[in-house]
Write a structure and sequence with these properties.
The structure is a homodimer of 347-residue chains. Chain A is α/β, with parallel strands linked by helices and 347 residues long. Chain A has 2 domains: 1-99, acylaminoacyl peptidase (de novo design (two linked rop proteins), Up-down Bundle), CATH 1.20.1440; 101-237 and 272-345, 3-Layer(aba) Sandwich (Rossmann fold), CATH 3.40.50. Chain A contains 12 helices and 8 strands. In chain A, strands 1-2-4-3-5-6-7-8 form an 8-stranded mixed sheet, sandwiched between helices. In chain A, helix 9 (246-256) packs across helix 10. The longest helix of chain A is centred in the N-terminal third of the chain and has 21 residues, at 29-49. Chain A starts with a helix and ends with a helix.
Chain lengths: 347, 347
């Protein structure tokens, strides 16, 4: 479960990763990270006693990230996993108003559901309807609470950020599992963002990581109002299901809410298939792939073959693992700069 | 030379530390980090071509930090070391106006010298003469160009930051080596900061790391206008010179500008001795010490014994190395919060 580089770049301190690697055998992964979460939450409460609200927010985010990584691949104990999810949500909700820039809690209606999300606005004053915005999509086990540092990169460059939970994710998981219509959720949130007085409705991009990278392509293919799209370690179908690791397959089974792995394979392959819609993709699209990813290079070929109406920027890193997490901060910076060029520099 | 935790917390990406550890035997430490500096400078230039000025600034800072660590303990080739120093200065000067918040280049006159420095002001608008400020002092091989991430922690909390080179440091080294009157330089910079229209002249603290932690105590003991003082891995004398590592001793010899180690020992012990002045220290003072530091615990005892007129907060971390770099971000956060409580929350 030790996805060292990803955890570090998302904000887990190196000392905690070292301690996790060196923990006694009798301390489980889940217990170790729960206890780190307790530790940072305790420090956050101390900071609040001192009126150190910025530190309180940063420490609550750390506590949130630790409990996230406690449960992120903990598919085999659903009740424990779900309790940790609830804790993660509570910690981030406490952190949200204290972050620099604050994260505003959103609720967007769709069907009988409320889609929960967060919006962060860069602190520099801006003209009405002038702010570009990037909608960030999580993947199989990612939710709206984890992208604080990536958001900060965008915010420093004058770009607002929005995260939300879609089908199979975070707060929505219990009501709705993996489904073929993630794009309805992203479009509902896009409607909301376009109604915000700060945001330029024509400068909203979508970026998704891992499975979120498939959702991002789907979102932009099905809704031409997106100005740009980034698929970060994404794919266009799940025909390669059998190449996934056992733990990832367990994750698919879990979010598909089925009992057997055969059902999961069938459901995932049928539900996640962008081949019929990729010709509808027209906005500038950035696709980042690590050649060492179990996701095969044939996914990149398919994108090139089918997304014939979109200006594509395809980056394949020969030494990159899934989502290129092992190559440090530069690939993330490049995605951010590409987005800024699409959304800001052209206006 | 691989001071892993310090380098990482100051901003060196983990992937570069891994690559440094795995570099081929024929690639020297100096060459490895020079080449990383070239790499990031190249990316910075690319970013500028795209009008990605924020990325350009962040990448130039990274290039600056890499060339810093190339030369920081490279005492045995002075001309190479000094050329790298000049490069470090140039890189940071290019980065400075592009940082969020920008670093403004200062020049403060003292005797026949110009003290070079940088001032960063938090972005949120403030009333005239309302901003608290922290003056950050480097140590034996640290200069005004390295504390970007620590500064950012203060800036996010509404505190301005100032760095400069004193005797034996950076741009001043060739004109003036290690000397007993560092406090004259910090007081000259303090005069300047108190004249700035943004800054609250009564809310300026001084913080120094390693040898800078001795300078911070000296600065505050000799100038009661400082509102607070942090000594981060500092000391009050150098009687323990012989306990230092061979590489550190070479550094002492270098900045003392003497030929032999015997001369260095004598000069350093005589020049750096706060025992006669510590009773003049009256402002709130925070002293952070790692019990595994070659700097002995007797330095902590001496501070307690002699700084009898200052409210002292002494933190000894039993598992901490020099400057407690191995304990992650929390000790840094605690120093920052302590400063904010001293400078902000009380006003």
């Amino acid at each position: 479960m030790m996805r060292w580089h990803r955890m570090h770049l998302d904000g887990i301190p190196v000392v905690d990763l070292e301690a996790a690697a060196a923990r006694p055998e009798e301390v489980s992964w889940f217990e170790f990270w729960s206890s780190r979460s307790d530790y940072y939450e305790g420090l956050a409460n101390d900071a609040l006693q001192n009126n150190s609200t910025v530190s309180c927010g940063e420490l609550l985010f750390l506590a949130c990230l630790c409990i996230h990584y406690a449960q992120y691949l903990w598919w085999h104990e659903p009740s424990r996993r779900q309790a940790a999810q609830r804790r993660k949500e509570r910690l981030y909700r406490r952190a949200a108003p204290l972050l620099v820039s604050p994260a505003e809690l959103l609720s967007v209606d769709l069907d009988e559901l409320s889609i929960p999300g967060f919006l962060r606005i860069p602190s520099a004053a801006a003209e009405p309807r002038s702010l570009p915005c990037v909608m960030l999509l999580g993947g199989m086990e990612s939710t709206k609470e984890e992208s604080y540092h990536f958001e900060n990169m965008l915010l420093r460059r004058g770009v607002a950020t929005c995260t939300f939970d879609g089908p199979g994710q975070g707060e929505l998981f219990e009501e709705v599992g993996l489904s073929a219509d993630f794009n309805r959720y992203s479009s509902a949130v896009l409607d909301y963002l376009r109604s915000r007085p700060e945001i330029n409705p024509d400068a909203i991009a979508v970026l998704g990581r891992s499975l979120g990278g498939l959702y991002a392509l789907q979102a932009a293919a099905m809704d031409t109002r997106f100005a740009a799209c980034v698929s970060w370690g994404g794919c266009v179908d799940m025909d390669y299901f059998d190449a996934e690791t056992p733990l990832t397959k367990e994750g698919w089974r879990y979010i598909a809410k089925v009992d057997t792995m055969d059902e999961a394979r069938d459901f995932v392959r049928t539900t996640l298939d962008l081949r019929p819609v990729l010709s509808n993709l027209t906005c500038p699209t950035y696709f980042l792939h690590g050649a060492l990813d179990p996701t095969p290079m044939s996914e990149v070929d398919l994108l090139r073959e089918l997304a014939v109406n979109a200006p594509l920027t395809v980056v394949v890193e020969p030494d990159g693992i899934h989502c290129v997490h092992n190559l440090g901060p530069v690939p993330r910076l490049r995605m951010v700069d590409w987005l800024v060029v699409c959304l800001v520099n052209k206006w």
